[in-house]
Amino acid sequence: MAKKRKKIISGNAKTLTCAFCKGKGKDPFEVPSKLSDCQVCIGRGTVQVVEPVETCPYCKGEGIFFHHRMPCTVCGGRGSVTRIKGGERCEKCEGDGKNPDSGLPCSSCYGLGAI
Ligand SMILES: [Zn+2]
Ligand SMILES: [Zn+2]
Ligand SMILES: [Zn+2]
Asked: Is this prediction's pTM over 0.90?
């Protein structure tokens, strides 16, 4: 059994249902095959997000990068993001996380809706 030595998460991590596969552990789009494990949770059905946890403003907690059959680039497909402490609402996207022209994650707040 390989042990992970690197610990990236430092705060209190909360275990949540994977938004991308809705906890099924399988790729919701059956990509590349029906038997593929969910690329977000690696088949576990759950993901960890460091607290304080907030619903991803960009995908509205869906975990899916709209139209693209890909995990949301802002929350990584988890559906939740770590809220920025003392973050102010982004004026450019009005807290939506989305660039109104391109539909891509806002370049000012990286899709988080706050800066
Ligand atoms: Zn998943
Ligand atoms: Zn998202
Ligand atoms: Zn923004």
From this structure: no
Give the ligand whose atoms come closest to the C-alpha of residue 111: 3
pLDDT tens-digit profile, the chain (115 residues): 555 555 555 679 999 999 999 999 999 988 778 889 999 999 999 999 999 999 999 999 999 997 778 999 999 999 999 998 888 999 999 999 999 889 999 999 999 999 9
Angstrom distance (rounded) from CA 94 to CA 107: 12
Cα 21 to averaged position of ligand 1 atoms, centre (Å): 4
User: To 5 degrees, how large is the angle CA 28–CA 32–CA 36?
Assistant: 60
Find the ligand nearest to 37 CA. 1
